[in-house]
Amino acid sequence: MKLFTTVGIFSKQDGEAVQSTLETLYDFLVTQGLKVLMSTHAAHLLNSTATADEELAKQIDLAIVVGGDGSLLTAGRLLAAHQVPIVGVNLGRVGFLVDVLPAQMLEQITAILNGDYLEDERCLLKACAWRGEDKLGENIALNDVVLHARNKVRMIEFTTYIDGFFVNTQRADGLVISTPTGSTAYALSSGGPILHTSLEASILVPISPHTLTSRPIVIPNQSLIEIEMGNDRPVEALLSFDGHHDIPLVSGDQIKIIASPKKMRLLHPRHYDYYHILRSKLHWGTQL
User: Fold this and answer.
1) What is the active site of this protein (predicted)?
2) Per-residue pLDDT tens for 164-204?
3) Which among 266, 2, 270 is positioned nearest to 114, based on CA atoms?
C-alpha cells in the first residue's frame, strides 16, 4: 500500500533551472502512479492546469516545493492547517529548509515515497492586531512576526508584556518575534541566538534598540506576548508575517502573539544533519 497517493507541486516563479527540475519531477511522479496537482506558479511553468491553493491543500497528502526557503515558507503557512508533509528541493540561495539537491532529487524522493525519511515538526506563531475592540487582522508565521517602522527611518516606542507581566518599554527600530526555525533568519542578523528547531520556544529580538542593555530573550512558545504601541512617539508602524501580509499600526494599537496550535510537517532524507546545515550555510570553520 502506498504511503502517498496525491502529490502537490509548488515552485518559485521563474527560472530555467526551476522549469527543468519541475519537468523532471512531474514525469517521475506520474511514472510512479501518483496523482499530481500543481500550484499556480508550477502549472504556469509547465503549461498545465493549476489547482487553487485551498483546494490543493485539501486534496494532497504530500507536497514537494521546488525553490528556496521563501517558497517553502509560503507553502508551509498554507499546508500547516491541513497537516500535509512537505519536501523541499533546493533551487534557492540559502536553503535551511529545502535540503534535497536537484542532482539527488529522484533518488531521495524515491526513498521518501517508500517511507525512508525523517520527519520534523516546526512551530508557527499566530498574531493578531487590535485597535480598541476592532481586530485589524491576523495571520500566522513560520519564521517570524516583525514589528517595524513604516516608511520612515525613525524609532518606534512599544511596551511588551509576557503572560500578563510587564517586561519593558523600549525605543527601537522594531522587534522580531521568532520561532526556532526563524532563528537563523532576521532574528540572527539582529543579534539573536540560534535555537534548535525541536525546541518549543520563541525569541524576542529588538532591532537596533536605543539602549545597550536591551538584549534578546527566549521564552516558552505557549506564553502570550502582548505589545502595545506607545503614544509618546506617534510613528506609523507595520506588523509583518515572514516578510509579507503587512498590518498597518498606529499609536495605541495592540498586538497579541502566541504559538499556533498547528505545526508544519517537514520531511527530510534519512541522512539529514541539522548541524551540517548550520556549518554549511553559515560557513562555520571557513578559513578567511
Assistant:
1) 69 (proton acceptor)
2) 999 999 999 999 999 999 999 999 999 999 999 999 999 99
3) 2
Q: Measured between alpha carbons, how far is 19 from 26 in angstroms, rounded to an integer?
A: 10
Domains, the chain, ordered by start: 6-123+263-282 (3.40.50.10330), 125-259 (2.60.200.30)
**Set 53, 69, 163, 246: catalytic member:** 69
| 8 Å CB contact between 239 and 126 | no
- Residue 20 three-state SS: helix
* 14 classed as catalytic: no
What's the rounded Cα separation, in Å, for the pair 83 and 282? 30
**58-87 in b/e burial notation, b at 16+ Cβ within 10 A?**
eebbbbbbbbbbbbbbbbbbbbbebebbbb
Residue 255: count other Cβ atoms within 10 Å of its Cβ.
25
Q: Is the dihedral of CA 218, 204, 88, 261 positive or negative?
A: positive
Does the global pTM surpass 0.90? yes
Q: What is the pLDDT of residues 103-152, one digit of tens each?
A: 999 999 999 999 999 999 999 999 999 999 999 999 999 999 999 988 77
